[in-house]
From TrEMBL:
It comes from the Bacteria. InterPro entries: Restrct_endonuc_typeI_TRD (IPR000055), Restrct_endonuc_typeI_TRD_sf (IPR044946), Type-I_RS_S_subunit (IPR052021). Keywords: DNA-binding, Endonuclease, Hydrolase, Nuclease, Restriction system. The lineage of its organism: Bacteria, Pseudomonadati, Bacteroidota, Bacteroidia, Bacteroidales. This is Restriction endonuclease subunit S. It comes from Bacteroides gallinaceum. Residues 78-175, 195-377 form the Type I restriction modification DNA specificity domain. Its EC number is 3.1.21.-. It holds the Pfam family Methylase_S. Gene3D superfamilies: DNA methylase specificity domains (3.90.220.20). The keyword Nucleotidyltransferase does not apply.
């Protein structure tokens, strides 16, 4: 492999300032902390969009205002052939010569944790304050020959395509499970005239454990890189478990929280905050585990109820949100409210049939999620490798 050299980034990029003067572009996007474009949350009623900047293909947008606050550099590249517009406060720039500096390689460089740490350090140390265009231009970048850049980008994009394919399959699996649930337990079901063996009941009747946890003393300082998994609300998504933000605690701390230990096939439900009513099943790969006070463990007394309850809670999100917002200034659901929550209790035979149909779907989803976790680790390794 041909070795590269450390170069000053400003020698290979230039600022571009193309305004939306003719109002031809209407797709306004913002920047996320994951270094991607996202739908804008700004109120643009009455706003003059002719002052906004157009971002064409292979052009970058850079938010200089957020680095100190979030300790990351919000920066993204438009890989689409369709132009977008961004805030006039953003810096927009491009590579001077893509035959010397590949734009996708540059985006990989911006995606490295080391780059964010460098920018954070410079933000604190800069005389002008913050990490602005001048600091970005002074940033060193490892620049191998263009052939090597293209090879690195190809490897990275191959992994990215596989991750996206897995995500599409996972979405289809979840869609199929939801369709089966609606077909068996929603469509055509009259709660006043239920099939034989069916009845209305409460969640507490079919569960042997419902309870939330606590946070060990010490706050974030108590988290470690190895040990017992510690589940927080950010880990619980809609039918998904977020491994990326998983914290860990020591064995001693876990023993203190033994009363809220997590078991296989437990349902996790967020009971406070902006993510209230999101639910997922605990993945076996993170056990042993504990939860904090914002997450409720719901454990059915028969394991065949697990997938049924998971989908039931998912489709009950609006009702649960209604409970959380009643009589409180903060969205929250209590244990007693969960125990009293009215549910449809189908016959054991029907639940067994449903469990048989959907368990294989979710088991396959778990395998794909585990593969994506490994692929994301490989992503990180490739990003770290380009700086060596």
């Amino acid at each position: 492999m041909n070795k590269g050299e450390m170069k000053r980034l400003g020698d290979y990029i230039r600022e571009v300032d193309v305004r939306n003067r003719d109002l031809e572009v209407t797709n306004l996007l913002g920047l996320s902390m994951t270094k991607q474009f996202r739908p804008s949350t700004s109120n643009i009623v009455g706003v003059d969009l002719s002052k906004y900047k157009i971002v064409h293909k292979d052009v970058f947008a850079f938010d200089t205002m957020s680095v100190i606050r979030v300790h990351k550099v919000p920066i993204a590249i438009n890989l689409s052939k369709s132009p977008i517009i961004v805030s006039p406060a953003y810096i927009t720039f491009e590579c001077k010569d893509s035959n010397i500096l590949n734009p996708n390689y540059l985006m990989m460089w911006f995606s490295r944790d080391e780059f964010d740490r460098y920018a954070d350090f410079k933000s604190d140390a800069a005389v002008r304050g913050g990490y602005n265009w001048e600091e970005l231009c002074d940033t060193p970048i490892y620049l191998p020959p263009i052939e090597q850049q293209q090879k690195i980008v190809s490897e990275y994009e191959a992994i990215t395509r596989r991750i996206h394919l897995n995500e599409q399959i996972i979405a289809k699996l979840e869609e199929t499970a939801q369709t089966l649930y609606r077909k068996m337990f929603v469509d055509g079901i009259d709660k006043e005239n239920l099939p034989e063996g069916w009845r209305m009941g409460t969640l507490g009747e079919i569960c042997c454990k419902i309870g939330s946890g606590a946070t060990p003393k010490g706050g974030k300082e108590c988290y470690i890189n190895i040990g017992t998994s510690f589940i927080r609300s950010m880990n619980v998504l809609d039918l998904r478990f977020n491994h990326n933000e998983l914290a860990r605690i020591t064995l001693q701390q876990a023993k203190i929280l033994d009363s809220v230990s997590v078991e296989s096939k437990d349902i996790l439900l967020n009971i406070t905050g902006v993510s209230v009513a999101r639910c997922c099943m605990v993945p076996d790969s993170i056990l042993p585990a504990r939860v904090n006070q914002h997450v409720m463990i719901i454990r059915p007394n028969k394991i065949i109820y697990s997938y049924y309850l998971l989908l039931l809670l998912y489709f009950s999100k609006e009702k649960l949100l209604g409970i959380s917002q009643s009589g409180s200034t903060r969205e929250a659901i209590t244990k007693s409210e969960i125990e009293r929550f009215t549910i449809l209790v189908p016959s054991m035979e029907t639940v067994c049939n449903f469990d048989h149909k959907v368990s294989s779907l979710f088991q396959y989803e778990v395998l794909l999620e585990e593969e994506n976790n490994k692929l994301n680790e490989l992503h990180s390794l490739l990003l770290a490798k380009i700086g060596q």
